[in-house]
Amino acid sequence: MGKIKLIHEVRAVKNKRQLADIIKAQRISEKVLQNIVAKLQTGIREIEIANFIKKSFVRYGAPVLSFPPIVAFGKNTANIHHEPGKTKLKKGDIVMFDFGCAVNHYCSDMTRTYFWGEPTTKQKKVYNDVLRAMKLAINKIKKGERKANVIDKSARNFLGKKYKNNFKHGLGHGVGTVIHEWPNFKPKSEDIIPAGCVMTIEPGLYFKGKRNTQGGVRIEDMVLITKNGCVNLTKVSKDLKNAILRPE
């Protein structure tokens, strides 16, 4: 007799309708992201953008959010779960958005980091290193790796060599009717990732220290795990060139 599957293992594998709902939720999130990037201006507050995100989802017919949106400017981007406040956007700030919505109870999740004006050499390097860590993990999955801790390690080891103890959360998690569901990409995870599940891949680096070097970079995509690889469900560009916004 084969192993009896536990409910979280059954739930992790999405059927076509469930996957279609997740993709639809993600496409709506991508429209909202376009709208908020266009709305950014020097002096606007985090909370104004967070409220605009909520209103935008209502306008697109997806009023239920996966979780309260994260909007962070400047040094606040160093806080992994920053709650939007009265901080105003200023030239030279890093800007981080992390949000998603639900369609028929199935969630989306995405993070993008931008620069409000030309980033410093160090900021460019940090951004490209986070991007590289994400690509290393995705390539691992594409080659058929299904052990969660090995996938996590591919990104963590790369970042760990350059930035000591700086990547302070798991590489990603399953997404479904709740925003964090089994399985999990973590250093000590014993999960084996099944085909048919949707995972986030979200490496990040966070600096809290001298004033001019405070801030963080996180980039997050959702991928569908397939039998022989994976399909990236996130269609928003993330190369450095597109991450640099030019204030008027």
Fold and architecture overview:
It comes from Candidatus Nomurabacteria bacterium RIFCSPLOWO2_12_FULL_41_10. InterPro entries: Creatinase/aminopeptidase-like (IPR036005), Pept_M24 (IPR000994), Peptidase_M24B (IPR050659). This protein is of the alpha+beta class and 248 residues long. The protein has one domain: Creatine Amidinohydrolase (Alpha-Beta Complex). It is 34% helix and 21% strand. It is built from 6 helices and 13 strands. It has helices spanning 7-12, 16-39, 46-59, 121-142, 148-162, 240-243, and strands spanning 70-73, 94-99, 102-103, 106-107, 110-116, 172-174, 181-185, 198-201, 204-207, 215-218, 221-225, 230-232, 244-245. The strands form 5 sheets. Strands 1-2-5-13 form a 4-stranded mixed β-sheet. The mean pLDDT is 94.
Q: Uncertain segments of ≥5 residues (pLDDT<50)? A: none
Please name the CATH topology: Creatine Amidinohydrolase
Strand content: 15-25%
How many distinct helices?
6
> Residue share in helices?
25-40%
Q: What is the first-to-last residue Cα distance?
A: 66 Å
The neighbouring-strand order within the major sheet is: 1-2-5-13
Fourth-level CATH superfamily: Creatinase/methionine aminopeptidase superfamily
Architecture per CATH nomenclature, i.e. the level-2 architecture: Alpha-Beta Complex
From the spread of the alpha carbons, the general shape counts as globular
Structure class: alpha+beta
* Count of the separate structural domains: 1
At the first level of CATH, the class is Alpha Beta
Number of DSSP strand runs: 13
Q: Order of SSEs, N→C?
A: HHHEEEEEHHEEEEEEEHE
> What is the averaged pLDDT score?
94
Give a short account of the largest sheet.
4 strands, mixed
- Nearest-angstrom radius of gyration? 18 Å
